[in-house]
């Protein structure tokens, strides 16, 4: 046993001190390391089943193999498995190099506590320590594009470095294309996707990404044809059905859109795909401006979780449906039903949620919904008192104040406040465009409207809620 421990420490020390090019791989077993490297290759080729077997076999040989745990956790969208293997990786931090430790802490910080800032800081340090490592560059690119950061230029820089270091990894192409799309640079995105198709000519993923590019470029009919080509290769591709449905909704062909979602009820879906199946159904009705029907869908989602039929994260689905039903009642000018729904959500959280930060976040929304209810009922002074007594207003609370300014015809104050909100949220931009419209400022109205157009995204509830009021953009 002592010999094994000394050997383990020697391996780890050797890897940490002999190179700064690559994140070390700490394991007690050379055979496990070989399996791990095979798994990484399979993962790069989108052969996820083969990768999964290799990671699992590596862990059987070395249960302390933290990098194998973390890569297995992130391989597929099986969230119970993800939590399990992140937890197991976290148990072995004391045995790891700094790069491995930061990698695992970053994933734990986000997927455990939704702490995007800590995740970002961890990967920022990793890429400084290992500037020539493909994973370090890819992951820092990823957190620059996702998880609320939204810095596509920085993401492009690091994705391009990752791709240059290793052009045999599918996600390097895919994420670089999405980063260009985030800038509405469809020309460069298409170039990357064509390279991606050349790399994996028989796989649906690059073609699916290309179909989404066409949708984001408002080329809906071309996107539909591209999704059809995906379904010819794989008739069980969930995202192709969702993409087809989204395109048809944007074209206001709503009955056809709903029909394209029906196969999702029988296909084998990942946890993430299952979440988006429901979002697709909800967003279709919202684009059609049928909020009542969207609420019916959300109640179906909740009932499926309550019945036990849904074995996927029932607490998550009940939580999310409570939150969305509450919001949609308010959007549908039903304040009494909205307040009642919020109270049911609050009671659900108190009974079923253990994470205190989540509980506090939901309880903290009570003032917001009470103020919103007052506005919808015409009790503007009561709403104003609640809003002005809030010492740390959220963007949503600021939006309520801006709506009051608009009712008072104080357009400049409303515009000033709305311009402080998240400029990548189409719902906030919708209200900003309204404010410019009410002020008869056509130039800024058109500018904001074009920004809304650029933010098109399927399964985005904020976008679906408002886009039919901007039908000329579609």
From TrEMBL:
Record keywords, A-Z: TPR repeat
Origin: domain of life: Bacteria
Record flagged with keyword Ligase: no
TPR repeats: 136-169
SUPFAM superfamilies named in the record: TPR-like (SSF48452)
Protein name: Tetratricopeptide repeat protein
Organism the protein comes from: Hwangdonia seohaensis
């Amino acid at each position: 046993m002592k010999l094994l421990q000394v050997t383990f420490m020697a391996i780890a020390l050797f890897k940490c001190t002999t190179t700064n090019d690559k994140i070390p791989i700490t394991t007690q077993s050379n055979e496990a390391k070989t399996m791990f490297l095979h798994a990484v290759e399979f993962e790069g080729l989108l052969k996820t089943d083969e990768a999964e077997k290799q990671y699992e076999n590596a862990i059987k040989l070395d249960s302390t193999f933290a990098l194998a745990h973390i890569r297995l956790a992130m391989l597929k969208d099986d969230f119970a498995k993800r939590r399990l293997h992140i937890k197991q990786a976290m148990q072995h931090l004391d045995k790891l190099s700094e790069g491995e430790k930061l990698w695992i802490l970053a994933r734990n910080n986000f997927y455990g506590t939704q702490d995007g800032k800590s995740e970002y800081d961890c990967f920022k340090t990793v890429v400084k320590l290992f500037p020539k490592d493909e994973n370090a560059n890819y992951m820092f690119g990823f957190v620059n594009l996702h998880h609320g950061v939204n810095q596509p230029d920085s993401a492009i820089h690091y994705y391009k470095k990752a791709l240059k270091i290793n052009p045999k990894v599918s996600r390097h192409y895919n994420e670089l294309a999405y980063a260009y799309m985030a800038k509405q640079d469809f020309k460069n995105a298409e170039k990357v996707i064509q390279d991606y198709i050349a790399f994996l000519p028989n796989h649906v993923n690059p073609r699916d990404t290309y179909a989404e590019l066409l949708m984001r470029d408002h080329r809906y009919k071309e996107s539909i044809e591209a999704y059809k080509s995906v379904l010819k290769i794989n008739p069980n591709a969930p995202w192709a059905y969702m993409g087809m449905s989204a395109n048809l909704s944007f074209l206001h062909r709503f009955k056809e859109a709903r029909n394209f979602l029906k196969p999702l009820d029988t296909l084998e879906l990942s946890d993430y795909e299952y979440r988006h199946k429901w979002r697709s159904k909800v967003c279709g009705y919202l684009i059609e401006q049928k909020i009542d029907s969207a609420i019916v869908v959300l109640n179906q989602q909740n009932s499926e979780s309550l019945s036990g039929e849904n074995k996927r994260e029932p607490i998550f689905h009940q939580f999310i449906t409570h939150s969305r039903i509450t919001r949609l009642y308010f959007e549908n000018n039903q304040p009494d039903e909205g307040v009642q729904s919020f109270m049911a959500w609050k009671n659900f959280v108190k009974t079923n949620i253990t994470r205190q930060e989540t509980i506090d976040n939901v309880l903290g929304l009570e003032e917001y919904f009470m103020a919103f209810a007052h506005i919808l009922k015409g009790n503007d002074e009561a709403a104003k008192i609640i809003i002005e007594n809030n010492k740390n207003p959220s963007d949503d609370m600021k939006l309520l104040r801006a709506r009051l300014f608009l009712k008072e015809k104080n357009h400049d104050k409303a515009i000033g406040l709305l311009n402080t909100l998240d400029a990548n949220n189409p719902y906030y931009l919708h209200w900003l465009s309204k404010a410019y419209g009410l002020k008869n400022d056509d130039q800024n109205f058109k500018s904001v409207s074009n920004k809304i157009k650029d933010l098109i995204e399927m399964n985005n509830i904020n976008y679906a809620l408002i886009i039919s009021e901007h039908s000329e953009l579609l």
